[in-house]
Amino acid sequence: MGKLDGKVAVITGATSGMALAGAKLFVDEGAHVFISGREQDALDQAVEQIGRNVTGVQGDSADLGDLDRLFDTVKQDKGAIDVLWASAGTGKQGLLGEITEEDFDAAFMLNARGTLFTVQKALPLFNDGGSIFMTGSNASLRGYPSWSVYAGSKAVLPAYARVWVSELRDRKIRVNVLTPGQVGSPMLAQVMNEEQMAQFESVIPRREMGRPEEIASAALFLASDDSSYVNGQELVVDGGTTVI
């Protein structure tokens, strides 16, 4: 018996990395998973990798029309949601003094605005007692040079969670933030060179990047009844980076 038997989960930004690993694990644990992503080719490949009990919906989580289409598909196919992992996000480096309006708008449009409306648009379909969690970043907990805009756009998520716990208490819907540290993923490879990757890896106590599957295991905990008494929390999964 799986931990998510009969559940319907939605995971945004799930065409690669830890969210894709999470989608695979959720299906293995009995869920039907709806995944979204910006690029149709990457989405098709992700659906093929997952193999079963998955529906891919192309869309940008910063686009409210695309979010409507995602949740309309869920409504038509399954009618309700038990788990939402709002994982779509973006980020790039920029030193203070060199940050552009475009850099700021891109990060906050997706990470802060897109996440809020992902949750809000999912709510009418949510079963009482469900689980919502968002992908944060330990960049918001530690002062990494060049990452202020990204850190700021992720720092809003725990604030959302604390307020939404109060607003959703009568429906017994839990809201948490899953905050990974340095994880080897295609996104990280796109925004960092080898020297920067080595520097990031050097501050992890075990001197080794996290694996997407390790974050997926934490996501399963938040999605399942194993975390039934965890609410309004930021679960930091960064190998101890932010405590030393």
Automatic annotation (TrEMBL):
* SUPFAM superfamilies per UniProt: NAD(P)-binding Rossmann-fold domains
Swiss-Prot/TrEMBL keywords:
Oxidoreductase
InterPro entries linked: NAD(P)-bd_dom_sf, SDR_DHRS6-like, SDR_fam
Instruction: Give a yes or no for keyword Cell membrane in this entry.
Output: no
Give one Pfam family: adh_short_C2
* Family assignment from sequence similarity: Belongs to the short-chain dehydrogenases/reductases (SDR) family.
PANTHER family associated with the record: DIHYDROANTICAPSIN 7-DEHYDROGENASE
Protein name from the UniProt record: SDR family oxidoreductase
